[in-house]
Amino acid sequence: MDFHKVGLSDSEYKTILEILGREPNALELELIGVMWSEHCSYKSTRPLLKTYPQKGKHVVQGQGENAGVVDLGEGWGLAFKVESHNHPSAIAPFHGAATGIGGIVRDIIAMGARPAVSMDGLFFGDSNLQKTHTLAKEVVKGIGFYGNAVGVPVLGGKTFYSPAYNGNPLVNAFGAGFVRLNKIASSQTAKPGEFAVLVGSKTGRDGIAGASFASRELDENDNASNPNIQIGDPFEEKLLIECCLDILDKDLMTSMQDMGAAGILSSSSEIAQKSGCGIDIQVLQIPLRDKGMEPWEIFLSESQERMLLIVKEENLDDVFKITKHYDLDCKTIGTLTDNRRYKVFKGDELIANLPIDILGDTPVKFWPSEVPADLSERQAIDLSTLKTTSPAEDILKLIACANGNSKHRIWEQYDSMVQLHTIMGPGSPVAAVEVPETKRACLLTMEAEPWKCFTDPYLGASETMALSLRGLWLSGADALGMTNCLNFASPEKSERFYELKESIKGLADTCRELDCPVVSGNVSLYNETVSAPIYPTPLVVTAGLIINRDEILKAGMTRSGDKIYLVGENDGSLGATRYQKMKNGKPLGKTVEPDYENEKLFRERAIKTAREKTANSGRVLAGGGLAVALANEAISSGVGMNISIKPQTTVESLLFSEGGARAIYSVPNNKIKEFENTWNGFSFDCIGTATGDSLSWDNLFTIPISDISKAFLEGE
C-alpha cells in the first residue's frame, strides 16, 4: 500500500520503518496514518502549545484529558472545552454542525460531568452572498436540532462574517458541564486485565477518514466527500449521557473516553497509552451497522454516539444491565494488557501488532516561519480616510452591519433555558449559569478578533484574550481558566505558520501575565481553499466564578438619572476595528499594545465595583468602540443618554477606537462617591447622564433610541 495515500511523508514512513524494524501491513499503515494526521497528532503545534501556562489555583485537570476541569468550590467542578468541526460543516453544514455539538457533549461526559452549557463560534463568508445565508441557515439548524433534542442549553457565542470565510466557514462548538470533584472520570486510569466496553451506536461507514479529511485543504471536489461526514442522533446521545453517568455514579467503570476523530482507534489507543498499558481488540466483537466493513473501516469510522468504557470483570454484568435499561448496544471488544502493544485480532488471526507509543508519540513537525510579505501593508493605515462626515450615520451603519446587529434570528432557534439554571443567555455580553445546589455562578465569555489577528497576529491574539477576561472582571468574576480553538490555514506555508506561532505567543503571554491558565483546547489547521486562506482565528472561551450570584453586574440595567462613566483612556486604536473596516473595505492597522499592569488595575477595580454594587450596569468597550457600547446599552436598557466628552485626539478615535482596558458604567447618584473612590488611581470620567429617549452627544449628533433599535434588530 502506498504510504502517501494515508497522508504520510517520506521521512515519516522512514521513521515508522525504524521503529518497527519492518514494513507495516496495510491495516497497520492505515492505523498509523490517521493517528499521525495533523488532526489527531497536533504535530505542527505541540511544542507551541507547551508554552501556555497550565497551572493555577483553580485547576483540577489541565491539558491531556478530554476536557479541562476547574474548581468551583463546595465540591463542584466545571469541565469545559471547545472543539472545531470546520471541514465537515463546509461540506455538509447541517450534519457537520450537529455532530460538532454531539462531539463536544461527549467530551464533557468523558470527564464524568453532566453537560450543562453549549456555545458556538460561527464564522461565515460575505453576508451579502446567498451562498453564505444558505450555509449559515443549515449550520444553525444543525446546532439547534442536536442541542435542543439532547437538552443542553445554548447560552451564547460569537458570529462573525467576512469574505475570508467564503470557502471555508468555521464552526467551533463549546461545551461545559458540572461534575462532583470526587466523581471525575479519566482516560488515564485503566489497568491491565480490565475490559474495553463499547457503548452506544453501532459502527458504520459514516465519518471514515474524517481526521485525515480535516488535515488538508478543502478543494472543489470535496462536495463529493459526503462519506467523511458523520450523521448524528441526539436522542441516542441523550440516552448515552444518562447511561454513562449512571454507570459512573455506581463506580462501575475505571476509565472512559469518547469516540471522536479516528473513532475506536483513537479512543482505545489513547486510553491504553495514557494508562501505561497495551490493549488487545477483537474486531469481530464490534457491533456493525453496515455489512462487509473492512477492519480499517471499522477502526477509522467516526460514527457518532459511542463511548469506550474500561470495566473490571466483576462489574461487567452490572454494566450490561444498565446499558440494556437504556436500550443501548454494549459489547466487550478488548482487554487491557501489560505489554504496551496495540493488537488487533480477527478471530484467532492477529492482523495488527504495533507498539502502543507509535500511535501516540508522533513525530513533531518544525515548519519554517516567515513574516508575511504584505504584513507592513496590512499594518499601514491612512487616518485621513477615516474622517466621519456624519457620526450618526456611521453609528447606525455599525449597529446594523452583519458583525454589529442582533443575532436573535440565530439564537431564537436554540433552547437557552432547558435545565432551568441559566442566569444570562444569548444576547448578553457574558453568559452565566447557576452552579448546582449553591449560590455560586459560573460565567463564560467567548471572543475572537480575526481582523486584529490578520494585521498583527501577536497583538490581535493578546487583545482577544484580554477582552475575554475584561468581560468576566466587569461582571464581578475571578477568572478560572481558558480553553481555545486555534483556527488557521496551512502550517506548511511559512507565512501562515508565522501567524499561528505569533498568535499562540500572544495568547500564552497574556494568559501568563493575567493569571489565567489554559486547561484545554483544539487546533484546526488547513482552513483554506485553492483561492484563499481564512484569517488567523484564535477563539477563546474563558470561565469565571462569582461566589454570590446576586452580585453579578449585568449590562442593560441603566436607569434614568444614572450618571454615565467611562473608565480607561479615551482612545484605543482605530487599527483593524469595525469602523476602520467599514471605511476602508479591508482590515488595516494594528490594535493596541498590551498593558498588563493597567489590565490588573482594571481587574481589581472592576471586580470591586460589581461586588460592592456601586453601579447599576456595566459594559466593556469592544467592537465599534465607545459610541457602539453606549448605543447598545441604550437599546438594552431602554433609556437615552446625554453625553458630553471632548476628544483628546480625534472625534473618530473617541467614538470608534477599540482595545485596551476600557468600559462604561451607569452609576446611581447615591453611589457616585463610592464608585469614584473605587476607581481612584485609574483613568475615569463622568461623561453624561441617562435620560430621555435619544442618544445625544454634545453637538455631534442626536439619534432616537427607536432608530438605533431598528438598525440593530433589522440589520442592513
What does it look like?
The chain is α+β, with helices and mostly antiparallel strands and 716 residues long. α7 packs parallel to α9 (234-249) and α22 (625-637) crosses α25. It has 25 helices and 26 strands. It has a seven-stranded mixed sheet with strand order 8-10-7-11-9-12-13. The chain has a seven-stranded mixed sheet with strand order 21-23-20-24-22-25-26, sandwiched between helices. A six-stranded mixed sheet has the order 1-2-3-6-4-5. The longest helix is centred in the first third of the chain and has 21 residues, at 130-150. 35% of the residues lie in helices and 23% in strands. It has a domain at 186-362: PurM-like C-terminal domain (Phosphoribosyl-aminoimidazole Synthetase, Chain A, domain 2, Alpha-Beta Complex).
Reported for the largest beta sheet, the result is: 7 strands, mixed
Helix/strand/pairing class, anyone?
alpha+beta
What's the CATH H-level homologous superfamily of one domain? PurM-like C-terminal domain
* CATH hierarchy class name of one domain: Alpha Beta
CATH topology description of one domain: Phosphoribosyl-aminoimidazole Synthetase, Chain A, domain 2
In percent terms, what proportion of residues is strand?
A: 15-25%
Kindly provide the radius of gyration, computed on alpha-carbon positions and rounded to a whole number of angstroms: 26 Å
Count every beta strand, where a strand is a DSSP E run of 2 or more residues.
26
| Overall geometry | globular
Count, helices: 25
Question: What fraction, in percent, of the residue positions are helical?
Answer: 25-40%
Low-confidence stretches: 220-227
Distance between the termini: 55 Å
> Mean pLDDT, nearest integer?
94
